[in-house]
Amino acid sequence: MTMTPLKSDFLEKMRQQFDNAPYPRTPLEQFPKNLRSLYIHSLVTAYYRRNQKVVTPAGKLILDAGCGTGYKSLELAIANPGAKVVGIDLSPASVDLAQKRLQYHNIENVEFHAIALEDLPSLGMQFDYINNDEVLYLLPDPIAGLKAMREALKPDGVLRTNFHSSLQRSIYYSAQKFFKQLGFMLGTEPEAEVKLVRETMRCVKNNAFMKVYGWNSNFETDDETVLANYLLEGDKGWTILELFEAIEAAELEFISMVNWREWDLLSLFDNLDEMPLSVMMSLSDQSIAEQLYLCELLNPRHRLLDVWCGLPEKTQEYEPISQWSDETWQSAIAHLHPQVVTTEFREALNHCVTGAKIFELSRVCQLSDLSLIIDSQGAGCLLPLLEMPRSINALVQWWQKLRPFNPVTQEPTSETEALERVKGLLLPLEENGYVMIERNA
Ligand SMILES: C[S@@+](CC[C@H](N)C(=O)[O-])C[C@H]1O[C@@H](n2cnc3c(N)ncnc32)[C@H](O)[C@@H]1O
């Protein structure tokens, strides 16, 4: 483990905060099983979002920037078999726990360094993927942090980073200011401060706004919840527009929201047909950043503004699948996402096909809050993908075998009809991240 001296009082205070209360407190022996989190940490997901290409993680170099006690470093190692994981954090106590965590799980291809993010270029490494989770909002100068990570990113590399949302967390910023004003957040005795916050909040009237909207039973039992919301030194909130400005200032390019399915502005409206035409036209004129901002204003439910970005140099042109010609479709290759193909998924798919039941994908593997259901015919069409990726052409032929003729007209299923059915099946699965469809060069 290497360690460098810190440059500012602010960083020194931050180090002290996390040396005294390393984050997260997840027990070392806990093995990550949350599919949604492993899916996000799989670099297959991010690379596909950027390039419509399916990469193999083996041999890739991954950085966990601000790794804390290494739970996410462990998730990164598990979600990316064969990749090497490097973790950095300015708190030596956290790094020590991260090292112990990965040792406990017999993960060997890792190394950790107790250095500040701002000093990242001093490592002299170039990464394929950087995970910078729950850190940027603590930095005195987040743009300097973004620039340091940009310098350490390979040209086709992907950076995952996030800010706290100022809209969603406004109640906690008030709580932090309230307790700071009363002399809390010294960072030296976190447990004693948590106890005092609880005692204070118990005395606050139940109808006080902060108690109604910013306090619940979790705060009474879980110290980390109090520390991460009421007593987090240096915590700052951002809006989507500010996030885009920071990305641009660091000469990075936005790729996608990490939970992109939950940032669809139009999905927040019922009865789009009844929307005033002028408003509808104005909505469609908005840039991507503006649409996300409108989404945030209308429904500020995400604590994190969580994004993937990369260097602006594009490796290839991205053409949305919805615009592909039939020829491009036919030669393209469909893959199930590797994190999706679990034993449970295989069993559930086989069960639905055999029993001619509907397949409730989101119940077997929940990648987002949206529910996704396919019929047993569609489930049958996915079966060959359990073994290996297949061309769309092969799936079209498979569809024709599964449904050789139309039971109503008794006409044989044509190739054109089968292609339309396969497209209709795969498009929502692709949009929601279960399936990846790679263009054949
Ligand atoms: C809220 S924790 C997040 C830990 C981990 N990324 C996770 O999500 O589980 C924030 C971490 O960022 C680290 N940190 C804060 N400022 C930093 C900086 N300037 N350079 C490196 N690490 C920093 C802290 O020491 C702490 O471990």
Give the oligomeric state of the chains in this entry, treating copies of one chain as homo and distinct chains as hetero. Answer: single chain
Low-confidence segments: none
Strand residue percentage:
5-15%
Helix content estimate: 40-55%
The count of β-strands is 14
> How does the major sheet shape up?
9 strands, mixed
CATH topology of the largest domain: Rossmann fold
- Under the CATH scheme, which architecture of the largest domain would be assigned? 3-Layer(aba) Sandwich
End-to-end Cα distance: 44 Å
Domain module count = 3
Separate helix tally: 20
CATH superfamily of the largest domain: Vaccinia Virus protein VP39
Rg for CA atoms:
24 Å
Structural class assignment: alpha/beta
Give the cofactors and ligands.
Answer: S-adenosylmethionine
Summarize the structure.
This protein has about 450 residues and is α/β, with parallel strands linked by helices. About 45% of the residues lie in helices and about 15% in strands. Helix 5 (about 90-105) links the parallel strand 3 (about 85-90) and strand 4.
Observed structural traits:
441 residues, alpha/beta, Rossmann fold, 3 domains, 9-stranded mixed sheet, 3-stranded antiparallel sheet, globular, binds S-adenosylmethionine
Structural features, described:
This protein has helices at 9-20, 35-41, 43-51, 71-79, 92-104, 142-151, 170-181, 190-203, 209-214, 217-221, 223-229, 240-249, 277-284, 288-298, 326-331, 343-354, 361-364, 376-387, 392-402, 415-431, and strands at 2-3, 61-65, 84-88, 110-114, 127-132, 153-165, 237-238, 253-257, 304-310, 333-336, 359-360, 373-374, 390-391, 435-438. It is an alpha/beta fold. The protein has three domains: 2-166 and 236-263 and 302-310, Vaccinia Virus protein VP39 (Rossmann fold); 170-229, no CATH class; 321-438, no CATH class. Strands 1, 2, 3, 4, 5, 6, 7, 8 and 9 form a nine-stranded mixed β-sheet that branches. A three-stranded antiparallel β-sheet has the order 13-10-14. Strands 11-12 form a two-stranded antiparallel sheet. Helix 2 (35-41) packs across helix 4, helix 16 (343-354) crosses helix 18 and helix 19 crosses helix 20 (415-431). The mean pLDDT is 94. S-adenosylmethionine binds at residues 11, 14, 18, 23-24, 66-68, 71-72, 89-91, 94, 116-118, 133-135, 138-139.
